[in-house]
């Protein structure tokens, strides 16, 4: 069977953070078969693609997305259906856009009506261009965790057996990852809570009134998911919630705006991954223009941003695995900023790129097995940059080509553009 | 204000008394045609769209379309359809229709009012396609539709129930209310089986829906395939009859007397007879479709002779079953002149949608929905297939760069 050799100037294969010069990859049937030096891999009948000025990396993974999240509120006009087509339309557009930005695989951590499971199926069938997608469908939270009656993104349970049954049913519906919404703030006066939180001394317990899934409930879910080689993502806010989730065996902790010493120890003990979702927090403070009457919201966002940056540096220094996830629920967000923000938190460009590739894949169980590095047997998902991003992370803005499954991804589809008609036969 | 002049084309306005392709430039301001210009007449600050060598007709109107039925493989059982899959196919179907010159469709029904939501997405500028005039879910008789098809309907029993559903549909934002008043091939829900065309909704139920639509100032349309069903609909005041496969003299006289148009949907019958087996429907469906087609064409010809207005609609289930096929069948199988077929797909369809004066013609005041063709469809209706470009509301939405190939 003939293949394709991609010959590049430099290769960051994602195995250890190193870059090798004058490398090439051989691809067959969508997968990497060999990695070697220039001129060593081409077999008779192979195509040769030469990109001698380019630096090649594995495709990026965004492991915290909500592609179908209704970020444009006007889609949720009160019709007889709650805007599912609008959510799907946006899901298709965002999947397209993320792939164009170099995200060749992603995890969707929660979507109303399980629409991400449907979207993942369309992407897998090749009908829609987008990252290979591990969908979570609806999330699980504790009784009282839904924001309101229209919170279609969450199901509620109480008890380990109920959690276990829900997980079995949800895996049957097609969830590739299970998303737990572990902690919910039950405060009517949010501004008042934020004031108390800001006034609390450093290291004190969060002063909020919280509901949280219990360790038993979380463990029931992780047990069911792990039997299938699938993984569990936990949204948690205060440190006590992070620690409950980690003791319950979750694979990734999302956001991580509050971590204590025990959290770091538990990350290291369990091998769990921190997904700090820097982009959404950063975007929020960049966007927040003091529009809300009470300045405490902005003050709290800024403090939280400081904490997150601090936590990322601290976790990284301690040896906790980090992975990129953007949480793109605000219009105007993009993927690349997540890598740049990791660098801004003190990671080296290589370490940040590993968080975007190898380490993100390592957090995804069986789904991640063939992703995240460029070595024999892995999917030939790769990016070609105009300069070496390990030397200067700014080079990730010079993305020249995105390949997925051994082929360049097609040009973006514009669902509102001009249709190109074929010539007719008169 | 954006000004565009479509220059160098020969323009057919089917709303005119004796339309021919006349050299004429069209001035478009924003989304509307605002003036007929003499060829070459100068306009300050206007962009030009080169229509030299083209014949320009109004964007076509498909009066019977189902955005969520087109091109989904019939071998995939309904219960395996996801909404994402259906949306993906719907967007593909809308693209195919727009690219073939159809700039408006009347959706004759969609499950869960999804056509209403799709219309909202179009208005938000998120998706393209022929502008949708939506019916939402059909109002049908309890147990009326065959297994697997009932999701497209809301089932009612009695005039109060019918009225309640009509009110809910109107509140949900439909542009017209669709009634399902007879079984096409005889099947109903469960073990119900009757002669083809057996009437389903009763006249009192139909009348209640029509009254509510009249209150809202919107029309009704009814799937009615037999004499009894058609006559019940007409007595109850339905505004448009879909399919109208079997018509007796009384039904035709009522249609003519009340000036109610029909949408014969020859395309779907032709498509089932031609592609049915290949699409997995089985030989008997293809044979039945061919037999029904002959009956429908005979009814159509008698109705036309009696002066009944006829609008073009496809009821398409696949993207080869385009509105231009409906026009071709009206000419080649039903004996229409090309002008009569073109009017069915423009002027009369616009009347059915209650958008006359706005779409279906090329004169000042109309929306700038234009179809640019390589040759004159009044010479040969098959020229509708040779599309050079499509404008919708003054915007180019489909265009061919290459020259037409002569074979």
Could you name the key traits of this structure?
heterodimer, A: 426 residues, alpha/beta, Urease, subunit C, domain 1, TIM Barrel, seven-stranded mixed β-sheet, seven-stranded parallel β-sheet, 12 helices, B: 407 residues, six-stranded mixed β-sheet, 19 strands, 20% strand
Protein model, in words:
The complex is a heterodimer of chains A (426) and B (407). By secondary structure, chain A is α/β, with parallel strands linked by helices. Chain A has two domains: 4-58 and 374-408, Urease, subunit C, domain 1; 60-368, Metal-dependent hydrolases (TIM Barrel). In chain A, 32% of the residues lie in helices and 24% in strands. In chain A, the strands form four sheets. Chain A has a seven-stranded mixed beta sheet with strand order 3-2-1-4-17-18-19, with no helix packed on it. In chain A, strands 9-8-10-13-14-15-16 form a seven-stranded parallel beta sheet, with helices on one face. Chain A has a three-stranded parallel beta sheet with strand order 5-6-7. Chain A is globular, with a radius of gyration of 22 Å. The two termini of chain A are 41 Å apart. Chain B has two domains: 3-58 and 362-399, Urease, subunit C, domain 1 (Roll), CATH 2.30.40; 60-352, Alpha-Beta Barrel (TIM Barrel). Chain B has helices at residues 83-99, 114-123, 159-172, 203-216, 227-236, 249-258, 266-275, 283-305, 323-332, 338-344, 347-352; strands at 3-7, 10-11, 22-23, 25-29, 32-37, 47-50, 55-58, 60-65, 102-107, 131-133, 138-141, 153-156, 177-180, 220-224, 241-243, 262-263, 370-373, 387-392, 395-399. A six-stranded mixed beta sheet of chain B has the order 3-2-7-17-18-19, with no helix packed on it. In chain B, strands 5-4-1-6 form a four-stranded mixed beta sheet, with no helix packed on it. Chain B starts with a strand and ends in an 8-residue tail after the last strand. The model of chain B has no long low-confidence stretch (mean pLDDT 95). Classes of the chains: A alpha/beta (426), B alpha/beta (407). Chain A binds chain B through residues 72, 74-75, 77, 79-81, 83-86, 88-93, 113, 115, 118-119, 121-122, 127-128, 415-426, and chain B through 82-85, 87-88, 91, 95, 98-99, 112-114, 116-118, 120-121, 124-128, 136, 168, 172-173, 374-375, 385-390, 396-407.
